[in-house]
Amino acid sequence: MALKYKFNLKDIKLEDFKIYLFSLLKAFIPKKKIKNIKDLTEFIQKKSSWVSQVTLYGYLKTRMGTKYVLMFDDEIFLTSINKAKWNIYSIALQDLTFYCLSYLYVFHGHDETKKAYNIYEEILNDEITNEMPQEVISKGKEKFKERLEKINWRKYYNSWPFNESALALYEWSPVAQELKNLDRKIVLNSMILKWENIQKEFTKLINF
Fold first, then answer.
1. 51, CA 20 to 30 Å: which among 15, 41, 167, 207?
2. Which helix (H) or strand (E) holds 113?
């Protein structure tokens, strides 16, 4: 799709951009310790949302340059962004859920692996109120179960745990395929680098 867009503020949802626009401020906000499954679920939900949106909007901004602020007048393109956001997020949730439970299992002796699907399902069901498409929810649950059957909890945390969400960013970003082919390494690395920060944060906050 040609990048010829006019900026229209009414088309932008505040909740979609506040995470991206104010992400730097988070460094100054005291972090909440993760003491139980409820805290863990909240951490997974918030951080997956943050990584998904920051990487998606960041990539679009980088690729479009000065045209970035002009791309929101086209309804079809806005629909593509929204679809990408939810699909990337659904996979990001999976990766972070598996990572956290694998890390807890190996380094803290907490076997919460049987709660993996419950955590994922709870988050997705909660997102219904935020208009997460039912199609994405159903597909996400199906893929989660498939991955869950094959997972090695002892190794997952240290075996490219966020590869799937990085690939989802590459797949779903609404950018012409010939451009994405050129950007593949940069796109994948941008997601992996964001996850590295989340990993460090998790290891500091965990207090089961």
1. 207
2. none
CA-atom Rg of the chain in angstroms:
17
Distance of alpha carbon 27 from alpha carbon 29, whole angstroms = 6
Closest listed residue to residue 121, CA positions, set 16, 206, 44, 18: 44
Measured CA to CA in angstroms, residue 67 lies from 7, 73, 82 at distances of: 9, 12, 19
Report the number of distinct structural domains present in the chain: 1
Alpha-carbon distances of 4 from 55, 64, 66, 77, 92, rounded to whole Å: 22, 10, 11, 10, 30
Lookup result for tokens 């479009």 = 64
Detail the DSSP E strand segments found in the chain.
none
Structural domain of 78:
34-205
Nearest CA-CA partner of 47 in 97, 110, 107, 102 = 97
Position 52 in a domain: yes
Nearest to 97 by CA among 162, 185, 169: 162
The verdict on residue 82 lying in a domain is yes
Identify the burial level of 11 via C-beta atoms within 10 angstroms of its C-beta, where 0-12 means exposed, 13-18 middle and 19 or more buried.
middle
